[in-house]
Amino acid sequence: MPAVDSLTLRFGPGPRLGVLQFAAALLGAVAILVSPADLAWKLGAWLTLVFATWRVHAVSFGKSRSGRLELLPDGTVQMNFHDGRQSRAVLRENAWTIQWFSVLALFEPDSGRHYHCVVCASENSPDDYRRLLCHLHMRSPEANLQKAMRW
């Protein structure tokens, strides 16, 4: 795995993801309105949409889901949450990245917990986000296998 200097990034959903969530809920509401279903089905779909939107917002935008993470040269990640908690985790190989945000899969070996951290490009400096993308794309399968065998 190519060594990366200590890289500090903000994680958590940015304001643009909130706008996207609102747009998706609005699109769902319009789809329910124009559907040919009976009123009872539409009401049930509306309630489901409202509950799902509320739940996703509560889980995604809570203070315990944001903070700073520091990617260390040994492949581990130090997470500092906004609520004061700290955690050390291993960066898993199944990160999902696009130009605007990345979802990092992290594993905390001490507790066995899995985390999925959203790192938004808009919430970090362009150079730091670019370095993260390069690090994630440049990891070799051999290094990932060796890291998995250690845990």
Would you summarize the structure shown here?
The protein has 151 residues and is α+β, with helices and mostly antiparallel strands. The chain is 43% helix and 26% strand. Strands 1, 2, 3, 4, 5, 6 and 7 form a 7-stranded antiparallel beta sheet that branches.
Report on this structure.
The chain is an alpha+beta fold. It folds into two domains: 7-14 and 66-150; 15-60. The chain is 43% helix and 26% strand. The protein has helices spanning 15-34, 39-60, 126-138, 141-150; strands at residues 7-11, 67-71, 76-81, 86-91, 96-97, 101-108, 113-120. Strands 1, 2, 3, 4, 5, 6 and 7 form a seven-stranded antiparallel beta sheet that branches. β3 and β4 (86-91) form a beta hairpin. The longest helix is centred in the N-terminal third of the chain and has 22 residues, at 39-60. It is elongated. The mean pLDDT is 81.
